[in-house]
Amino acid sequence: MKVTTKGQVTIPQHIRRYLGVSAHSEVDFLIRGREVVIVSRGKDEETTASRFEAMRGSRNEGLSTDEWMRATRED
């Protein structure tokens, strides 16, 4: 990855998706030993804290967890 004359790099699309980062999002760079870690912050941090959190409560078919597990297993 090349650094521009302004010190900029492009964050690869798969990393932006993983972090939930889009245009105008804010990120932080953390130095850990000899590594630099990029993390999203602000409202994006809540979005990426758990990719599954957004789905919580989305399955509302009236089945209990045990009933759902029995229905989805191939036993």
Strand order of the largest sheet: 1-2
Oligomer category: single chain
What CATH calls the topology of the domain at 1-51 is Pemi-like Protein 1, Chain: D
Order of helices and strands: HEEHH
- What proportion of the residues is helical, as a percent range? 25-40%
Low-confidence stretches: none
The count of β-strands is: 2
- Please report the first level of CATH classification, the CATH class of the domain at 1-51: Mainly Beta
Kindly, what is the distance between the CA atoms of the first and last residues, rounded to a whole number of angstroms? 49 Å
What would CATH call the architecture of the domain at 1-51? Ribbon
Question: What is the strand content?
Answer: 15-25%
Give the averaged pLDDT, no decimals. Answer: 77
Could you characterize what this model shows?
The chain has about 80 residues and is of the alpha+beta class. It has a domain at about 1-50: Ribbon (Pemi-like Protein 1, Chain: D), CATH 2.10.260. Helix content is about 30%, strand content about 20%. It is built from three helices and two strands; from the N terminus they run αββαα. It has helices at about 15-20, 45-50, 65-70; strands at about 25-30, 35-40. Strands 1-2 form a two-stranded antiparallel sheet. A hairpin with a 2-residue loop joins β1 (about 25-30) and β2. The chain starts with 12 loop residues before the first helix and ends with a helix.
Any descriptors?
single chain; 75 residues; alpha+beta; Pemi-like Protein 1, Chain: D; two-stranded antiparallel ribbon; 2 strands; 19% strand; elongated; AbrB/MazE/SpoVT family DNA-binding domain-containing protein; DNA binding; SpoVT-AbrB_sf; SpoVT-AbrB_dom; DNA-binding
